[in-house]
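Protocol step 4 of 6: structure prediction from sequence.
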Amino acid sequence: MDEKLRQDIAEWLTAIGIDAQLAEGIPTLVMIITSLLVALLAYIIVRRGVIRAINMVMKRSKATWDDSFMHFNVLEKLALLVPALVVNLLVPIALSEHPLLASLIDRLLIVAIIVLAIRALYASLDAANEIANINLVSRNMPIKSFVQLCKLFLFFVGIILCFSVMAKQSPVIFLSSLGVATGLVMLVFRDTILGFVAGIQLAANRMVSQGDWIQMDKYGANGSIEEISLTTVKVRNWDNTLTMIPAYALVQDAFKNWRGMSESGGRRITRAVNIDVATIRFLSVKDIARLEGINLLKEYLAGKKKELTEYNHSVEAGEDPVNGRYLTNIGTFRAYLKQYLLKSDKTRKDMTLLVRQLEPGPTGLPIQIYVFTNDTRWDYYEDIQADLFDHVYAILPEFGLRPFQNPSGEDMRNINSQVLRQLGASPNQSLPQ
């Protein structure tokens, strides 16, 4: 049929007065142009007709996954395969009288089809990655790492297929030759291979996920994970700087992940106020009567008074505090703080809640508050913590306590002035040597 069509075109050209020798080459040109026009027509039908109709259906759909395929133009890239396939089918037929040229063009067209197919697969993988991010699948699995690995695999497959097509050899020959280059591949793609293995470990053990807040001082990272790729983990720090951490470093080195705190719904406050030990004393009857007016202490003081009275009577302690047990301002202060935390609507009652003494030192007696807030957001957490210790420092004088503070320059000047007044000297004079 191809030969008959070629002869009919040549005879028609000769009949209209074109030289017979020239007319023999024109049918080939006409068939090539016709093939290209058919390929163009096929592309227009698929691109402007079929794909436009599919896109309209996707836009009206309530599903969200199809939006990702539209965003990455997956169908449009697949449509480019149609004219390539048509040309690959028709042009070799048109060049049947030129076998060497037909073979070369056929191989080039096959290579183009492979490249276009891989390009469409890349777009599909990008769309799948976006769908995973929208559905928060990537929080539990490093989807982007697998997508990048698939792209790398497709790249090598495409290279091997293209070389095998151009060389007219089986792809198996090129695959077997890769064994010789294994050492070079391991050297060049060391980070990629380590990153992929680390990605599998991170996913299997759920060590990190996108959105987790991690702290890794070795790399200066202290922030939220924005992206987990095949070789790196991108962290946006609290000051909006970006830190890139090798994926395998999260497996090899130590880091802190704050996800457990976020998932628990409670964020820990562990801070102490240092009490000046010189202000610690027993409470007098007048002090107890005054503190009984504090609602949070009524039940505590009533129970303690009964307990201590019975004990002191049993041991015949009398009025001497050395022989019995009596209330102290520091113990009552601790009881007050515990009740204050229990009554607060900002603390978690189902988690550890302590008000305890730590070992005293040169800076006084530390009274530590150990409690969890019910809001893990950073700004709210800081507000809750600040409000708590605002109250702690403000309430200390009610118990006759004073926070420890190293003497400042103003303190030393006041001491100097007092000593000078006692000596009868002017406050502007210095102490005698």
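Step 5 (inspection) to follow. The radius of gyration is 41 Å.
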